[in-house]
Structures are given as structure tokens and as C-alpha cells.
Amino acid sequence: MVGFLTTHALDTSRGTPAANLKIDFFEYHNGRGKEVCSLITNADGRTDQPVLAEKDFRLGTFELIFHVGDYYRQLKQVYNEPVFLDLVPIRFGMSENKHYHVPLLLSPFGYSTYRGS
Hints:
Layout: E1 4-6, E2 9-11, E3 16-17, E4 22-29, E5 32-40, E6 60-67, H1 68-74, E7 87-94, E8 99-101, E9 104-107, E10 110-113
Parallel strand pairs: 1-8, 2-9
Antiparallel strand pairs: 2-3, 4-5, 4-6, 6-7, 9-10
């Protein structure tokens, strides 16, 4: 089995998928990050394609950076600046050739993640 990486984001404060949320994807070597790509979530809070497709899959250390502050600004939510959560980084390792799914459950004042399926 060849692995691949997916993500999605749910806005728990609104009870909806987090549409139009920018996500930057980085790969790390020796503690240094290199940007691989940027994606935007669709109406379902998912990316239209895998973050890392089967043909590009590799083991290693990676990071997803979710632009939560900009997401809430585009919704015209009124919060004092600077916002409490602006960028939410999730650094994780992939050590097996399997499907990795890294979701984000977010609100303006908190978030959680887990290894999904």
C-alpha cells in the first residue's frame, strides 16, 4: 500500500465545515522547513486533492499551517486584534506507508486535532 495525506477543517463555533481556509504544507529536514504547497478548503472543509498524493508520498516530518485568523476575518467575525489564534501549526511525522488524515477542529479561541482515518 502506498500512503497519502489528507486533511479537513471543521468550525466548531459555527457548526459548519471551514470553507475557504488557507493551509500551507511544509516538509522538514534537519529542523528546517521547506514549503511544499498551499491549499484552500472547499465548501466541505476539505481540500479538492490530497495534500500529498500517492505518487508524491514520502515518510518524514511535516507541518500543516492553518490560517485561522484570516478565515475568521473573511467571515466578518469581529474580534480584537491581534486575534487569539492567527496561525495554527500542526507538526507531525509519517512513518508508515499508509493513509494519514490530519483534521482540525477550530474556533476563534481553541482547536484540536488527531490522526484520523
